[in-house]
Amino acid sequence: MATFGSFSLLIALMLAFYNLFAGAVSLRLFATGQATRISPQRLASSARRAGIAGFLAISCAAFALVWSAFTNDFSIAYILQHSNRALPGAYKFAALWSGQEGSLLLWGWLLAAFSFVLRLRHKTDVRLYAYAGTIMAGIQLFFLLVLNFAARPFALIEGYLTYIFEPHLILGTIISIPHAVTNLAVVPDDGNGLNPLLQYPEMVIHPPMLYLGYVGFAIPFAFALAALMMRYPGEKWIKITRTWTLVTWLFLTCGVFLGMHWAYAVLGWGGYWGWDPVENASFMPWLTGTAFLHSVMMQEKKGMMKSWNIWLIFSTFMLTLLGTLLTRAGLVSSVHAFAQSSIGAWFTGFMIVVAAFFLFVYILNRSHLKPEHTVDSLVSRESSFLFNNLILLTACFVVLWGTLFPILSEFVSGSKVTVGAPFYNRVAIPIGIFLLFLVGICPLLPWRSTSLKAIRRNFVLPMVAMWLAIGVGLLCGVRISEDGKFSEGGFYALLAFGFAACAVTAVLSEFVRGAMVIARQTKKNLAEACVLLVRRNTRRYGGFIVHIGVVVVFIGLAGSAFTKTNEQELALHGTMTIGPYRLECAGFTQDANDNYQSEYAKLNVWQNGQMQFQMYPEKRVYLVSQQPQTMVAIHSTLGWDLYVVYEGTNPDTGQPIIKAIMNPLVSWIWAGLGVMVLGTLIALTPSAKPNAGRTAGLAAGTEKITEGANQ
Amino acid sequence: MSRFMHSSWSRCLQATMLAVVVCFSLGATDAGSRFVDLGHRLMCTCGCSQLLGECNHVGCPESGRERKELSDAIAAGKSDQQIFDWFATKYGTTVLAAPPNSGFNRLAWIAPFVVLAAALVGTTFLVLRWSGIKLIKAQAAAATESALTDPAERERIERIRRETDADGGF
């Protein structure tokens, strides 16, 4: 299977090379109108077909690696290092992305899959798709070069060179001459097993989601660059890529949140975001991607921010590569960098090539990016989009700055520093709060410009809601000073609750205003009118629902200011208290299976004098790797999570040490993700057209809604 | 009307200031909060890349000793800065969970806010410039329009044209 996989990768490499070469030549011939023996149409068509065949070839390679994991082929070094016989089937599948080589193969495969769909849809705009397909082939070529020569997933264990095809040794010589048998190493009977941290159900879906997000941004980047290269008239390319961009953003969002949930449930330190470089690497393209989603609307609707958008999507694509470079080249240390190697030079080189090519194209064609309009007023929807972009990019800069500062500090001052959570809490939270403020006020601002009267009319209700929320927060015990000292956590939490109330009121008032107009026109009740309103403009109202989701997430994040912790050694029937709960140790025991040994405590949880439920925090030691792993017990409610960690046993007393944490509002974060997903799916759905019979009435209604929105 | 507006705005301002004062005057006390706070501003030095207050490694060779050192320092009445200095001297600056606000490392704290301020000022300036240019263009267009439609102005242009034997710039 290793031979099959290696051959597949080499064939995919050759096809990608042909795709790029033939695609580029055909585009050049199209541009110059030069007559040749082979028509540019035929050349472009063959390039496109090579791309499709390349997808099949790399699919074969991915299949070969998964098959090798399932058949325990430990002659392949990657399988030896990331799998073992007792590993459950789902995790054997997950072994595909649990190491450097496998995850790059997944990246390459997803890129090929995206390109495959792109090439199937080429009739939408043959020339634009030909350009974009050729750019995608260039990116694909890089990943296939890495997979064939730097991070080979089918490399055999040392000393096991037999009649196996080794492409990296034969490049430039006679192709496919098998190596002679040198010496035959004995294939180990079992593998080293999967990293215990990765043996968690979410890890089966978290990395593919994240990679779908990373890889997906290559598509809008390719289209944006293609449109610039061919000086594509109008903004049709934005309409074409809108679905790609939204779907990609959705995948990246889900990937980031699944990663947060995994960190929360597996790492056992009680939080979900530690500002680790790997987490930051996924967050940065999300921030620029979100900025792009907003500003590209300005280009589509008003022909503005053209240069800005092209730079934004370029930055997003580069950040997906930079994140990989930072965490895999060992430039920054991370608590969960699972795959480190020397591929940094490859990524650096590729980034330089991409940046140089982009700059060349941009300088050559920048006259094509002249805006058709500019912002009319400082207080307008356009202006708020600009500031929204600004804040998102500043947040991205802060994360990048914090991630890179240890390297910079070591370079300049000679001593390394740590840039951890306290730095980001001090710097990033105010920026996040400002973003929440913008989420609240943006929908209240009309396009072009507004009057003071309109501002006052639109802002009264949200401002009342904001002050009410702050008042309720104070009444519920949120304090902004403790022991006479200013409490940042309490202050930011109050601001977050206030701005969240402001934002939700603003968005809901948009819904109610629109629904009331429709209800009047159609004689429907308000709920039905609301549904109709959303269906008739899925994009606008789906976007609003996403904003509500973001606000819900912010409320959940604000809860972290009120976390409580208690750590205690518990004897049998011993108790500890945290918040409203009393935890009683009902026993502690051990268990084992083929994969791991575990010890866990059985805790009875009491509240108001009554036993409410039981929890089983657990500690596992995986047999093959001998690595310990925490299995946290979590009891979630809408108000808080009771988070219990079995920290092991005291060697002196033999009694378990239990750490209990009260994490307020955490479930709001996951609920917020659900709302964001729902909103994005609605925004992706085409808007319903009104029935012919009701067109007149609804048109009048829509006119009034638009009028209302513009006021 | 303007007096009413003025008084309502000043009342809003007064209410806001009162709310801020009330917020600051309210307080809570927690005896262990300093240990928790400082534990979350120091790193565990075992290489786990976790905050000292959150390190949950069973048998971690470092975090137990560090926590004891921290609680001893708090009990000895040392200030936060003295504690940080002591830890930095013993374990190196990487034990601090955030860069110290001194020397080159001060740049870490300043740069984000400088960038934010520059971006805000720059964007505001740009938008004001755009809207200003539009306003000037709109005023010029309106002036031209009124010049062409107002009979008195047309007469004046005609007079200038006659007198100068030129088109008067229109």
3D architecture notes:
The complex is a heterodimer of chains A (711) and B (170). By secondary structure, chain A is of the alpha+beta class. Among the domains of chain A are: 435-537 and 687-710, no CATH class; 562-667. Helices cover 60% and strands 11% of the residues of chain A. Chain A has helices at residues 2-32, 40-70, 77-82, 89-94, 100-120, 126-149, 167-170, 206-216, 218-229, 236-267, 277-302, 306-328, 344-365, 381-413, 421-441, 452-475, 488-522, 526-536, 538-558, 666-684, 695-710, and strands at residues 481-482, 485-486, 564-569, 575-578, 581-592, 596-607, 610-615, 618-622, 628-631, 633-636, 640-649, 656-664. In chain A, the strands form three sheets. In chain A, strands 4, 5, 6, 7, 8 and 9 form a six-stranded antiparallel sheet that branches. Chain A has a four-stranded antiparallel sheet with strand order 3-12-11-10, with no helix packed on it. Chain A has a two-stranded antiparallel ribbon with strand order 1-2. In chain A, helix 14 (381-413) runs antiparallel to helix 15. The longest helix of chain A is centred in the C-terminal third of the chain and has 35 residues, at 488-522. Chain A is globular. The termini of chain A are far apart. By secondary structure, chain B is mainly α. Chain B has two domains: 32-98, Cytochrome C biogenesis protein (Helicase, Ruva Protein, domain 3); 106-164, no CATH class. Chain B is built from six helices and no strands. Chain B has helices at residues 2-25, 33-39, 63-75, 80-91, 106-149, 151-164. The radius of gyration of chain B is 33 Å and the shape is rod-shaped. The chains are: A alpha+beta (711), B mainly alpha (170). Chains A and B meet through helix 14, helix 15, helix 16, strand 1 and strand 11 of A and helix 1 and helix 5 of B.
